[in-house]
Amino acid sequence: MTDKAAKQDHVLIFDTTLRDGEQSPGASMTHDEKIEIAMMLDEMGVDIIEAGFPIASIGDFEAVRAIADQVKSAQVCGLSRAAMGDIDRCWEAIQFAVNPRIHTFIGTSPSHRGITNLDMDGMADHIHNMVTHARNLCENVQWSSMDATRTEPDFLKRTVEIAIKAGATTINIPDTVGYTAPRESADIIKMLINDVPGADEVIFATHCHNDLGMATANSLAAVEAGARQIECTINGLGERAGNTALEEVVMALKVRNDIMPYATRINTQKIMGISRRVAAVSGFAVQYNKAIVGKNAFAHESGIHQDGMLKNAETFEIMRPEDVGLTETNLVMGKHSGRAALRSKLENLGFTLQDNQLKDVFVRFKELADRKKEVYDEDLIALMSDETTSS
Ligand code: KIV
Ligand code: ZN
């Protein structure tokens, strides 16, 4: 998708699993693993891959360069602080990509200005100089006013205006510490689009962290207010409580397209495969009840739910497991399961039962389920072999 198309009813998906995601303490990936994940992201239709932070280490530089060389379709982006040396190093790593992007940033909120020792005027000049420098190297430049959601609104507008005038093509509004709430997230984007000269020439991006569990809601609110790029990671990997989860925003836009009519280019059937691979290489297991990709996201145990599912899957499922790359809904057999689910499960395992047989097996199944949390296929097969021996 072109950045222009995204201005209307498309949202660009900017994946930062390999940069912000990898910043999770303990989530580092090897060179080869990063390339493998980048190729999977490209194949699933991600628009922009943030491949790393080239100045951070030689290893990061080399991984970003290799990804830039190998990715065929997505834009490849490198991160750099707003500093000449960072920007030059970033460009060195990404320049041979099919469509390279420099992403440069500085913290604009009062506490960040304190750290960099720049007052508002000093920071404004610095932003102008750094974005101009990046733009002289690359025609695709993303500017981030880090900690935007805690930056004074007038100063935020000023930083964004300067970045646009200096040639930034994407303006990212990070909620760096996961502090904002959905209405505020929308209001900030609306304010920038309405008040900043040149705003209609650029794409606004939303980059949310999940400290209060609102990253997905905040990202979608920003889109409804006019943002057309969502920054996210697979499994919501990222610093502290993580970033917006790619699978959540993409599936929310797909399932609730009736009220959020914005498309992405993501092939959603690739979601489960990449989620499992990212969990394996990062060493960060996905929580069982994680939306979309958790082990239990398409599992049903209670009798009423299983019965409903067997009659009509829409009763308890708002999306099809196949849409995210699973083969089928998982009816988990446990003490809450009912007779209909047991019959169906046994039929799948090759056992067709008369009603009186089912009655007997059901009693023994419940006894077993009281002793075990989950009754596996092997347990049911053992139960059936006892049944055939005793009858
Ligand atoms: O959270 C953040 O502010 C960031 C920036 C570098 C964009 O990750
Ligand atoms: Zn971040």
Rg result: 25 Å
Unreliable residue runs:
none
Bound molecules: 3-methyl-2-oxobutanoic acid, zinc ion
Strand order of the largest sheet: 1-2-3-4-5-6-7-8
Oligomeric state of this protein: single chain
Give the topology string: H per helix, E per strand.
EHEHEHEHHEHEHEHEHHEHEHHH
Shape, per Cα inertia axes: elongated
Strand content: 5-15%
E-strand count: 10
Q: How would you state the average pLDDT, rounded?
A: 93
- Proportion in helices: 40-55%
Distance between the amino and carboxyl termini: 64 Å
Sheet of most strands: 8 strands, parallel, barrel
Our count of helices gives: 14
SS class? alpha/beta
GO cellular component, one term: cytosol
Function: Catalyzes the condensation of the acetyl group of acetyl-CoA with 3-methyl-2-oxobutanoate (2-ketoisovalerate) to form 3-carboxy-3-hydroxy-4-methylpentanoate (2-isopropylmalate).
GO biological process, one term: L-leucine biosynthetic process
Organism: Pontivivens insulae
Overview of the structural elements:
With 391 residues, the protein is α/β, with parallel strands linked by helices. The protein is 44% helix and 13% strand. It is built from 14 helices and ten strands. The chain has helices spanning 31-44, 58-70, 84-94, 110-116, 120-137, 153-165, 182-195, 215-224, 246-255, 271-282, 303-311, 339-348, 355-371, 377-390, and strands spanning 12-15, 48-52, 75-81, 100-107, 141-146, 170-175, 203-208, 229-232, 299-300, 330-331. The strands form two sheets. It has an eight-stranded parallel beta barrel, surrounded by nine helices. Helix 7 (182-195) links the parallel strand 6 (170-175) and strand 7 (203-208). Helix 7 (182-195) packs parallel to helix 8. The longest helix has 18 residues, at 120-137. It is elongated, with a radius of gyration of 25 Å. The relative contact order is 0.10. The model has no long low-confidence stretch (mean pLDDT 93). The site of 3-methyl-2-oxobutanoic acid has 9 residues, from strand 5 and strand 6. Zinc ion binds at residues 20, 174, 176, 207, 209, 243.
